[in-house]
From TrEMBL, chain A:
Main location: membrane
InterPro entries referenced in this protein's UniProt entry, alphabetically: ABC_transporter_permease, MetI-like, MetI-like_sf
Entry's localization field: Cell membrane
Transmembrane segments: 21-44, 79-100, 112-133, 165-184, 205-233, 269-289
Protein name: Sugar ABC transporter permease
Key word Zinc present: no
Gene3D superfamilies in UniProt: MetI-like (1.10.3720.10)
Domain ABC transmembrane type-1: residue ranges: 75-290
The family this protein is said to belong to: Belongs to the binding-protein-dependent transport system permease family.
High-level lineage: Bacteria, Bacillati, Actinomycetota, Actinomycetes, Micromonosporales
Residue ranges the record marks as coiled coil: none
Keyword terms, alphabetized: Cell membrane, Membrane, Transmembrane, Transmembrane helix, Transport
Xref: PANTHER family: ABC TRANSPORTER PERMEASE PROTEIN, ABC TRANSPORTER PERMEASE PROTEIN YESP-RELATED
Membrane topology: Multi-pass membrane protein
From TrEMBL, chain B:
Keyword Signal annotated: yes
Protein name in the entry: Sugar ABC transporter substrate-binding protein
Matching Pfam families: SBP_bac_1
Key word Cell wall biogenesis/degradation present: no
Family matches, as SUPFAM superfamilies: Periplasmic binding protein-like II
Signal peptide interval: 1-24
Naturally occurring in which organism (per UniProt): Paractinoplanes deccanensis
Keywords: Signal
């Protein structure tokens, strides 16, 4: 098969192209890149909110990151969350996508139903989970009790607060599921037919056809979910840090929550900006590692 | 083509970099000083426009006061942002220069913004309008908003806590009102044991709900603790704070331990038809003054009474924060802001509010439990004029108890790290009550974290 040679675009077409994407470019430059550069400059400054003035601080804010034990603690909590949440979400989303891919009648209905949780506002979801996760009367522990298991105090016991946030995060699994579903729809049927003729069972087919064929989607989801996991804020904030009378064990202090506290409760904008840049660097390194590893295993359509 | 594209991109980035660094350069300078509040003057004669951020979801009382204040500021055009206070939104508005003239916020937040120079001290505001804060409000209410010897807000409301008794549960267990005495832990614990019930290790009735994390200041201050030093610095590791925490632990341990206690109380239908008094889930519970209003529709289903919360010395005591109005340092019309906030908290405003509330109560056939304004004068006037025997002796005794204790208030102190202090104190209580840390260790850890926030905010 010969690859198609891309047609050379002429100058007028190029200008038209740039004009079409110029709103996005402007938005990116002003609201993303501009904001990033501004936050980088804040991270090297002491910012006074009352006067709106900055004073150079050199590396003080970055030095303070190393000296504050809560930075490392919140990073550890966030890492724990990411290690637990990302694989679980991938597996659950893939499982649901495979189920939905098999449904023939009422497929649209089921897809809508499964996608609804993603549409629910985080505050509403948190309210529901506060009830579900109640250690005495919550539905989760009631179900566990019915099969003879005494469930934990999800929202109080420090050992269980992070898993409780993972559970709430899994509620929004349908976003990932939809991507998997789209990938599954693209796997050619004839591959399965040939495999069946060769005597491959469903498990073998999954590992030798499905998984390699959707490896691009898996790779994409792993990267996106890892980034999202390190930035997790809503769930931890709503379950534990929404006001000061809440029981908020140290285990629930995630990196983004601590960053928020530093910026908006303690007005340490320089420190908070430095925290943001540290997270950016961590995510950059993690993503680079994932890309390096992923390139070995991911199948891209059109590749030889 | 490739080279041109790269050059275009580089030029764009350079343009943005230049623009941003240019902006930053303009803003660079000394960060000393606050908002220049000392130079602001206040005048009793006001005009122009007033932008207020206050009265989120105003009820009949709020609407009556807004109308009253508007009449006192004839000639001033008032526009209101009636959304709830949000620290992030406020900070963003300050940074963006979109500053309202007056902002309603909890009194706990006030010292934080005062320490940053983001709001104005109000001595000149009071003197321009001939208001003596010590005369207008209870001393503890003024104490909540006093930082470095200056008053930084116009306070409003003081809804004191007391203990509402569930007579049904108490009678069944043979417990008397005098047994619910927070100054005598042994007597209290004996009463708790008589009333406490559990099924499979899970509580079904608490003898006494101390509101361990909801009424932290009350417990610590009333039992001899000290949370804030004279300069606003946190003092969570003060040895006097050990006793209140140990007392709380005994109360909670006698009722299944903190985890089960917390899980049980979190499931209360506090505002609903199946609240903890209707379902007999508590024998007694610490509640703020507004809670009898919630219970009022269920007066025929419950039997209640009340006793004061007593301090370590055996005397009734109350500790609570409330609302307030602050004037941002960059307010464009501080004089009008001052006059408006003061108008909202003067006798005429409260009289209008009480009249409106009485009309609502008449319509709803509810019980008038009074208004607790934060000012002794209006509190007495409203009680004399509107709070009449309801025909329900238990409710009348509850209302009377709250009026009896309203003047016993103590301030928990004003700290720039107030928000962090409350969070850390809550976490210290949690870890101590769960048995993960000793009270000493829990309070010491909380002190370290709060001090860090204090240094950062107060700059010391």
């Amino acid at each position: 098969m010969e690859r198609l040679k891309p047609r050379k675009y002429n100058r007028r077409e190029a200008i038209a192209g740039y004009l079409f994407i110029s709103p996005w470019i402007l938005g990116f430059l002003i609201f993303t890149l501009g904001a990033m550069i501004y936050s980088l400059s804040i991270s090297f400054s002491r910012f006074n909110l009352a006067t709106n003035k900055m004073r150079p601080a050199g590396l003080d804010n970055y030095r303070a990151l190393l000296e504050d034990p809560r930075v490392a603690g919140s990073l550890k909590n966030t890492l724990f969350f990411a290690i637990l949440a990302v694989p679980l979400e991938i597996m659950l989303a893939l499982f649901l996508a495979i189920l939905l891919n098999r449904v023939r009648r009422g497929a649209g209905f089921f897809r809508t139903v499964y996608y609804l949780p993603k549409m629910t506002p985080a505050v509403a979801t948190a309210s529901i989970f506060l009830l579900l996760l109640n250690g005495n009367t919550g539905a989760i522990n009631s179900a566990l009790r019915a099969i003879g298991i005494e469930g934990p105090q999800w929202l109080v016991d420090p050992a269980w607060v992070r898993p409780s946030i993972v559970l709430m995060a899994l509620w929004g699994v349908s976003g990932t599921m939809v991507i998997f579903l789209a990938a599954l729809k693209n796997v050619p049927r004839d591959l399965y037919e040939v495999a069946s003729l060769d005597g491959a069972g469903p498990v073998r087919q999954f590992f030798t056809i499905t998984l390699p064929m959707i490896s691009g989607a898996v790779f994409f989801n792993v990267i996106i979910l890892t980034i999202a996991a390190f930035q997790v804020f809503d769930q931890a904030y709503l379950l534990f840090w929404r006001d000061q009378t809440n029981v908020a064990p140290e285990a629930s202090l995630f990196y983004a929550v601590y960053l928020f506290q530093q910026a908006f409760r303690q007005f340490n904008f320089g420190f908070a900006a430095a925290m943001a840049w540290l997270l950016f660097v961590i995510l950059l390194i993690l993503t680079a590692i994932q890309v390096k590893i992923g390139n070995r295993y991911v199948y891209y359509e059109g590749e030889r | 083509m490739e080279i041109r594209r790269t050059a275009l991109l580089a030029a764009g980035v350079a343009l943005v970099l230049g623009a941003v660094s240019g902006t930053a350069g303009c803003e660079s300078g000394s960060d000393d000083g606050g908002g220049g509040g000392e130079s602001v003057s206040f005048d009793a004669n006001v005009s122009g426009a007033l932008r207020a951020w206050a009265f989120d979801n105003a009820d009949d009382v709020g609407k009556a006061r807004i109308d009253y204040a508007a009449k006192q500021l004839q000639g001033v055009s008032i526009t209101m942002d009636q959304t709830g206070f949000d620290a992030q939104k406020f900070t963003t508005r300050l940074a963006g220069g979109d500053v309202p003239d007056v902002v309603q916020m909890d009194r706990e937040y006030v010292p934080t913004y005062a320490a940053q120079g983001l709001i104005l001290p109000l001595e000149k505001c009071f003197s321009a309008n001939n208001v003596d804060p010590k005369q207008r409000w209870y001393p503890n209410v003024v104490g909540d908003v006093t930082y470095k010897d200056q008053v930084w807000a116009v306070p409003q409301f003081y809804q004191p806590p007391a203990i509402i008794l569930n007579t049904t549960v108490m009678d069944a267990a043979g417990v008397q009102p005098e047994d619910i005495d927070t100054s005598k832990p042994d007597v209290l614990l004996a009463a708790i044991q008589k009333m406490y019930k559990a099924s499979g290790g899970v509580p079904t009735t608490l003898g006494f709900d101390p509101q361990a994390v909801g009424q932290t200041y009350l417990w610590f201050i009333s039992q001899g603790g000290k949370l804030v030093g004279d300069n606003g610095a946190p003092t969570l590791d003060d040895p006097s704070n050990i006793y209140p925490l140990e007392t709380l632990k005994k109360i909670v341990d006698a009722q299944g331990g903190f985890a089960k206690y917390k899980g049980f109380t979190d499931a209360f239908d506090t505002f609903g038809d199946s609240n903890q008094y209707v379902r007999n889930q508590v024998g007694a519970q610490v509640n703020a003054q507004w809670y009898p209003n919630v219970l009022s529709p269920y007066k025929d289903k419950i039997k209640i009474g009340a006793v004061p919360f007593r301090g370590k010395d055996g005397q009734p005591v109350t500790v609570a924060y409330g609302g307030s109005f602050v004037i941002p340092a960059k307010a464009k019309n501080p004089s009008a802001a001052c006059k408006w906030a003061l108008a909202l908290t003067e006798d005429g405003s409260w009289d209008a509010a009480a009249t409106a509330r009485a009309a609502t109560i008449e319509k709803d056939k509810a019980i008038n439990t009074g208004l607790f304004t934060g000012s002794p004068g209006p509190d007495k006037t409203i009680r004399d004029k509107y709070v009449k025997p309801s025909g329900n002796a238990g409710f009348d005794q509850v209302i009377s108890t709250y009026y009896d204790v309203v003047a016993t208030g103590k301030s928990a102190g004003a700290s720039p790290a107030g928000q962090q202090l409350k969070q850390e104190l809550t976490n210290a209580i949690t870890s101590a009550l769960l048995g993960q840390k000793t009270p000493q260790k829990a309070l010491a850890d909380a002190q370290t974290a709060t001090m860090s926030a204090y240094r950062s905010i107060a700059g010391s």
